[in-house]
Amino acid sequence: MKRLPSKNLAIPLASYGAVIAAIIISRTVIDREHALLLSAGLMLWVPFLLDHASVNVLRFDPRGLLRGAGISVAVLFLYLACLYLFSTYLGRTVKFVEPSALFVLTHLVAIAFPEEFFFRGYLQRTLGGGWGAIIAASVLFAAAHLLVICVFTGGSACGQNALTFFPSLLMGYLYMRTGTIWSSVFFHFAANIVYLSFRVA
Fold first, then answer.
1. At residue 154, does pLDDT exceed 70?
2. To 5 degrees, how large is the angle CA 77–CA 129–CA 179?
3. So where are the chain's domains?
């Protein structure tokens, strides 16, 4: 396992703290839609401000994207198969709720892309880029979801967000394995849509 670099951790960790604090504060003073746009903007702007190499993260690699998409489809197919089997075992059914075009666009542009750019393209990369960085970025990713969601919802939704650690590991692996942020963006986006569109009833 590649070790995290011992120096220069202060800047990415401080930027993480500042971004998450700003997101939490914004949700208390402005409406949810504007807070979502602000958080997306912060996660895109901060890496460019602090690290000029961040522009290279956006380079498009079709082969890397296709490889990541293949892994993503396989993982999400397995998830849906397990969901159907588990719901059948419980005597329940899985219902598909068709998402609106705005819902899909929002999850791509304002959630999956900025979160992957910040957590994988900036934090994971600046923390060293190996498995140690994947785990560290995933802990930070899950902690951010816990902090932001728990402040505003609480209850079971709060605890469930700790589970974002596990798909975050896969997103980090996809970024490391394919060398392109677009593979992890694809999985993040597709996983969000699948998770929110298929409900056990």
1. no
2. 55
3. 61-200
- Residues with Cβ within 8 Å of residue 48, at least 6 apart in sequence: 54, 55
Tokens 């903007």, located at residue: 41
Long-range contacts of 123-128 (CB under 8 A, 24+ apart): 123/12, 123/16, 124/172, 124/175, 124/176, 125/53, 125/57, 126/8, 126/11, 126/12, 126/51, 127/4, 127/5, 127/9, 127/12, 128/2, 128/3, 128/4, 128/5
**CA dist., res. 193 & res. 164, Å (int):** 14
3-class DSSP state of 154: coil
Q: Angle at CA 3, nearest 5°, toward 71 and 53?
A: 70
Residue 53 one-letter amino acid? A
First to last CA, the chain: 42
Q: What are phi and psi of 95, to 5 degrees?
A: -110, 140
Given this model, what pLDDT does residue 6 score? 45
Tens digit of each residue's pLDDT (9 = 90 or more) over 67-117: 999 999 999 999 999 999 999 999 999 999 999 999 999 999 999 999 999
pLDDT of 1 over the 50 cut: no
18-46 pLDDT per residue, tens:
999 999 999 889 998 899 999 999 999 99
* Contact (CB, 8 A) for 183 and 80: no
- pTM, entire model: 0.91
